[in-house]
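To whoever is covering the structure queue this week,

Two jobs came back overnight. Logging them here so there's a record in the thread.

Job A:
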Amino acid sequence: MNTDKLGFSIEEAVEFSGIGRTRIFAAINAGQLVARKFGRRTVILRQDLEAFLGALPARAPKELPANTIRASAFLTNKEFLGQEAIDEQILDSSAATDKAAQWLASTPREQRPRPVMVELRERLGLSAVDACAAIREANLIRARSP
């Protein structure tokens, strides 16, 4: 797209700005973005589009709760805990997942509490990912059994 143009069609304004077609029309209808008509064609001047984009509020950084683990802390988890502690956490997690899978596979469907996911998370303290893994493993155990 030639960005040296003085005016843009709606589709070109969408491509140039990264804002969707519906939002462009909403801004025009709200009077936030100036558009001109030439016959049936709608034209948005480059300076009007740039002024509209420049007037949009800047996004402030999102405040995270104090107990939130930041990505940088997660990435340095091995250095913080040590490899042995991480290996132990993985073993604990997989042991709990295996226990949950065995319990699910051995409990008849009509006796299992509903929803199973909530029960696994509350009863065994599994994460959502571990609970899904336990359900998948329990299905495999039942499929393999005669």
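Job B:
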Amino acid sequence: CSSQSRYSGIRKVAFPTNSVGSNFGTELQPQICVAPNPATAGSANERFQGNEKWTKKQRRPPLNLLRLFPMMHRHSTTTGNSMKKTSAFDEYIAIVRRLRRECPWDRDQTHESIRSMLIEEAYEVVEAIDGKDLGALKMELGDLLLHVAMHSVMASERRAFSIDDVIRASSEKLIRRHPHVFGTTKASTAREVKANWETIKMSEGRSSILDGVPKKLPALLRAMRLQEKAAKVGFDWKDKKDVWKKVEEEVGELQHAETSGNRDRIEQELGDLFFALVNYARFLGVNPEFALTKASDKFSKRFRRVEHELRKQGKEAGKVRVEEMDRMWDEGKKQETR
């Protein structure tokens, strides 16, 4: 499927009056063009430039996808003065494309420049979930969706991949990794599903069971995920008591390192202690990332209460004795248990 055929067909897109803007003007409408099996499809550049060996049949989405998800082969096209209904998602992508053309800030962004914002938006989604605020969750999911759309549009501008490719690849992966739903594999428990999942991922070309745990994850969460992965193949402690003994062992090694004054060694031993504590949290069934977040939130709430009490008395933190702040801290703790 050549880049010319993929991006041919420039047309006017008229949106419903209740959408953002009644007419978004000229839009590039990418045609759906699907590569065969990813393992034999060649590079992304080859898929966009075309491959003469591909047949017309191969360019269509796999049969099972079309049968299970017929909407994947639907296009919003014009025929004379009539137009097929445009989905909200199509409108959304058109909005992002227009922003990339007409907004100086959006036009200047790159995959790298907005990467930290993607992480920030993901955390805001988590915050909405923790707060059980479905209204906020709806808004934050939209902000997260913007990043998926923006990165996909950026990639399509470089003829790397389109949003259609992203959705189709994800659909194919979901089907491939759920053979107990879409195939004949039997899996009656969540444990069996997870075991199949890991086996399938390894068959996809991964060299280690630990592949797939991002290095950019928060440290506590990454430690837990690494431990969980290793445990799935039997590399794990058998008794929770032994895990706690390891924690105590690491405490002793940290204290010994502290007496040496070697900063690198102290850092290493402190890291080992954190890792052991994460392991113990896993055996307790507690997510260490969530536990530390709640502890931080509790500290913040109590310290802000101390600041508030000081201001009521015309005082300021940092200009009073620590004993006075300790007293207010303890009084605040007592109020929490009443």
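Note for Job B: Residues 1-66, 69-83 have pLDDT under 50 and may be disordered.

Please reply-all if you pick these up so we don't duplicate work.
Q.
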